[in-house]
Amino acid sequence: MNYNVPPPMRINLRPATFADLDLLRHWDEQPHVVESDPNDDWGWETELDRTPEWREQLIAEIDGRPIGFIQIIDPAREDSHYWGDVPANLRAIDIWIGEESDLGKGYGTEMMQLALARCFADPQVIAVLVDPLAGNTRVHRFYERFGFQFVESRRFGDDDCFVYRMNRVDWHHEGVTAAH
C-alpha cells in the first residue's frame, strides 16, 4: 500500500446564501480574485437574496470548509444580458478559489468538473461558455485542459476577455456526477 497517495477529494457544492455575504466580500478582496475579476461588482447584498431560475450560485466546500464559488447561468435568459444575444441551451460558468493558500491543490479542477456535470445534466444544454481575462494565460490553459476551445476576443464592460466554449460532444465526464 502506498501511504504517500492522498485520498480523493470530496468537494461538496451547496447553494450560496445571505449567510455567505461576509465570506464572499472577503474573497472579493483577495489579490488573486481581484486580478482575475478586477471590474465587476457582484452586488452580493442583492444577489444572494435572489434565486432566478436561470442562475445557480454555489459555495464549494471540503469537509464543511468553504473553498470557492461557482456561478452557473443560462446566458440567454440572464437579466443583465451580459452575454448579449446568444442562442438557447447554453450555460456560462464563473468559478474561483477564495483563498490564495487553496490554489494549486486541484480544488479548481474538481470544482470545474462538478460545474460541468451540473451544466450537462440537462440534456438540452449543448455547450458551456467561460470568459477569462485576455491576459490571464494560466486560466486559459486551465480551461483548455478541460477541452474548452477559444472562440473570440471580446470586451465585456471594461475588461478584455477571451470567450471559450465547450460543446457537449467534447465533454469528458468519466467518474463525475452532478450529485455532489
UniProtKB/TrEMBL annotation:
Pfam families: Acetyltransf_8 (PF13523). Keywords: Antibiotic resistance. The keyword S-adenosyl-L-methionine does not apply. Residues 11-169 form the N-acetyltransferase domain. InterPro entries: Acyl_CoA_acyltransferase, GNAT_dom. Gene3D superfamilies: 3.40.630.30. The keyword Iron does not apply. This is Acetyltransferase.
